[in-house]
Fold:
Amino acid sequence: MTRTDELSAPSRRGIGRDPAGDLMFTAIAIGVLAVVLTFNALNVLDERARSGHPLQFWEPLVWEGSSGFYFVAVSPVMRMLASRFWLLAPPRVLKLAVHGAAALLISLGHVSIAGGMRWGAYRLIGGYYDPFQMLRDWPYEFRKDVLVYAAVIAVYTAWRRFRDRPIETSSAGEVLEVRDGARRHFVPLSEVTWVEAAGNYVELHRGESGLLHRASLAQMERRLQSGGFVRIHRSRLVRREAIAAVESKPTGDFVVRLRDGRELAGSRRYRKPLLAD
Structure:
């Protein structure tokens, strides 16, 4: 292979939007959360009764319900963070720092908002709940909130990895299931040279023809990571084996020359992951 610059390790990887998958994940998570919180409330009632400090039945339901409502409300934010700072790809240290800061802020929001919700619920029933009680107990609440945040990120990451897994065959190797309206095409990964964003679609280029597929480029990047594809532009992925040369420009941008002679523009933002010593 003739190259102006050598190729480096794989590029940064993203994760695509999948509204149907996210909706299903949220529905399952709400169902599991409702069961867990109900059992937690029943356990609190039993423990208080055993200790000689019984509660009214509705009190632990308000406590657990307010926390559950808050975490359901912020779950889209946690899913966005899991997608934007995808922990299965480097740089992991920076991403872990971002998730740590996010867990801190979400926990502070929890003790503030859930405390206010409990105060309001008690007031409606004619009782009183100190809205700052959770804030004063924040170190204790934070330990629990970190576990909740970590669990959501881990389970959602596994969910997305499962949803976006490529289809494999035992003899022909890896293939892509490409949906084009009501039709489905099964395209061998080895036939795809490069992928380009086209609005709400991506266009898969193989030979002289292209095939539209309704997906985001970030989702395709996630699915094609095991196939040796690299992002060279915010709207373009290229299979490494199809690259013949990379020519850098004084501006930091570059041009990728494919083996078939075609040239693709690359952005300097993606130059470092593409080029090596």
